[in-house]
Structure formats: structure tokens, C-alpha cells
Design brief:
With 97 residues, this protein is mainly α. The chain contains four helices and no strands.
């Protein structure tokens, strides 16, 4: 006779999903403050891989919509002038002043 699976209680099991808004907020926090994925995972109570996947998904959505997202590490956008300089370098005419 096969073993029966015990039903899991509410909230049991790993948390693999983030709401879309949480994905966006985590991505913006990563881009703005350069928080490590592990730190964001700790804040959300998730695995680091879940945060990494969420950030990758949102960054690709932003890129598809034409929003420039800095790629290389150390390219923080700290001021509005930094945003315009980055947009100019990436030739995004809709963001130019």
C-alpha cells in the first residue's frame, strides 16, 4: 500500500512567488541601492534564487518597454542628472531633457 501524503497546513511549504508589485519594488531597491540579492531575500523571507529570478524578469520587462536599466555593477543612478546622462548615452530620446 503506497504511503499517503499528509496535507500541508495553510502557509506551509517554500515561498516561491512574489506579487508583481513586490517584484517591481525589489528590483527598484536593487537598482537604486545595490542591495545584494541575499539581503533582499532576507527582507522578503524568500530564497535568494527567487529574488534573482524576480529581478531578472522585471529588468527584461523594463528593457522590452524601452526603459534603460543600468547593467554593469557600479553604475548607480543617484540623481536626476545621472538618469539623463545615462539616457543620453543609451540614446533614449523620450528621456532627454
Amino acid at each position: 500500500m503506497p504511503a499517503r501524503r499528509r496535507p500541508a497546513g495553510p502557509g506551509a511549504g517554500p515561498k516561491h512567488e512574489l506579487l508583481f508589485t513586490d517584484r517591481v519594488v525589489a528590483t527598484l531597491a536593487y537598482l537604486r541601492f545595490q542591495l545584494p540579492h541575499a539581503a533582499l531575500a532576507e527582507l522578503y523571507g524568500l530564497e535568494r534564487s527567487t529574488i534573482t529570478r524576480a529581478i531578472g524578469d522585471i529588468r527584461s520587462l523594463l528593457a522590452q518597454r524601452g526603459f534603460p536599466v543600468p547593467g554593469p555593477p557600479g553604475s548607480r543612478l543617484r540623481t536626476l542628472a545621472d538618469v539623463f546622462a545615462y539616457a543620453e548615452a543609451e540614446t533614449q530620446p523620450w528621456l532627454r531633457p
